[in-house]
UniProtKB/TrEMBL annotation:
Listed InterPro entries: Beta-prop_ATRN-MKLN-like, Gal_Oxidase_central_sf, Kelch-typ_b-propeller, Kelch_1
Attractin/MKLN-like beta-propeller domain sequence ranges: 96-338
Alphabetical UniProt keywords: Kelch repeat, Repeat
Organism: Adineta steineri
Keyword field contains Repeat: yes
Protein name per Swiss-Prot or TrEMBL: Attractin/MKLN-like beta-propeller domain-containing protein
Keyword Phosphoprotein: no
Pfam families: Beta-prop_ATRN-LZTR1
Length: 349
């Protein structure tokens, strides 16, 4: 449903579908509560350049295509969300490239320089100073990267900065409350094994946290809580095992401690911080049972407990969720079928 939906408390409402189904794509919030999606896979063989813009009043409309086909890449807003950086891709010819979408002229332009290395399954984190940190990932040779680039909007170019202490992919990166420190957790290491290690980007250097996570994780999610702590949850190995466990990172002590487990095992899912301070866990895949949990749940940081909230209409992983003024929009994803999901659902909070 598009436009004025009924004010239904804690319920998933079907919304306008994407113009094309997609998974492993990028999604960002633009000014005026608009959302951009770009790239991704639309089936087991086709990679997308297509982009679309959502508004609650009109649903999805096309905008200009990216210069390159991209999936397993990063999409990041900057310049007060008036520009968008698309960086990397698993698509080999374009792995080292990046491009910028300008919301004013609605065009994509390649950056002045490429990244220092091709990469995918990396992360991108917007720092308070307006630059974007591009971290880790894999390259076309299968090398797991510790390399880090920084994108400088003023020059529309990349510079290489200090590398992480270890290579990793399928990890998380979270900007902490000071606006400049980035927490990196877990992922697959250079032996292609899940790791419990974590490290911090502080003043241009990488520092290991004082403790490891409570367990190794990849395909997990992390979100900054209102109190400055970070909630890390779920994950798995991408094949036979998923986790329901969760933990809290305390930036004061630089340590991890366990918190209550989710009610469902989830990998390749999303965590969304709601205005209430609670966190919504949406979708994902349980590789242990080969199922897609549709029930969503809320984490309460005060009681440190999870509770069921309401079910998605469609199970999905490798999807995206964006927080809007009155709801969370969940878009696309993968449900085990070749054709990716076009369906979108809105959670009224």
């Amino acid at each position: 449903m598009v436009g004025n939906t009924p004010d239904t408390s804690a319920h998933w409402i079907q919304d306008a579908p994407l113009l094309v189904g997609r998974s492993s794509f990028g999604a960002v919030l633009l000014p005026n509560q608009h959302i951009m999606v770009a790239g991704g896979r639309c089936n087991s063989s086709a990679i997308l350049r297509a982009s679309g813009i959502y508004s609650a009043s009109t649903g999805w409309n096309s905008t200009s295509n990216m210069k390159e086909s991209r999936y397993q890449y990063t999409l990041t807003t900057f310049a007060n969300s008036t520009k968008v950086l698309a960086a990397g891709t698993e698509h080999p010819p374009a792995q080292q490239t990046a491009e910028v979408y300008d919301t004013k002229n609605k065009t994509w332009t390649l950056t002045s320089t490429n990244m220092s290395t091709g990469r995918y399954l990396h992360t991108a984190t917007l720092l308070q100073n307006g630059s974007i940190l591009i971290i880790g990932g894999k390259n076309s040779s299968g090398t797991i990267l510790s390399d880090v680039d920084i994108f400088m909007p003023s020059s529309n170019s990349f510079s290489k900065v200090n590398s992480m202490n270890m290579g990793r992919y399928l990890f998380t990166s979270t900007l902490l409350n000071d606006g400049s420190t980035v927490l990196v957790t877990g992922g697959g290491n250079t032996d292609n094994q899940m790791t419990s290690t974590a490290e911090l980007y502080v003043s241009g250097s990488w520092i290991p946290t004082n403790t490891h996570m409570t367990q190794p994780r990849a395909y997990h999610s992390a979100v900054l809580l209102k109190n400055g702590n970070v909630l890390i949850a779920g994950g798995g190995d991408g094949g036979t095992t998923s986790y329901s466990t969760a933990e809290i990172y305390d930036p004061t002590t630089r340590t991890f401690k366990p918190t209550a487990s989710m009610k469902y095992r989830r990998g390749s899912f999303t965590l969304t911080l709601l205005p209430s301070g609670n966190v919504l866990a949406t979708g994902g895949v349980d590789w242990t049972t080969k199922t897609l949990p549709t029930m969503c749940e809320l984490y309460d940081p005060i009681s440190q407990t999870w509770s069921n909230t309401t079910s998605l209409n469609y199970g999905r992983s490798l999807h995206n969720t964006i927080l809007l003024n009155d709801s969370v929009l969940t878009m696309g994803g993968f449900n085990g079928q070749s054709a990716r999901l076009a369906s979108c659902e809105r959670y009224k909070y």
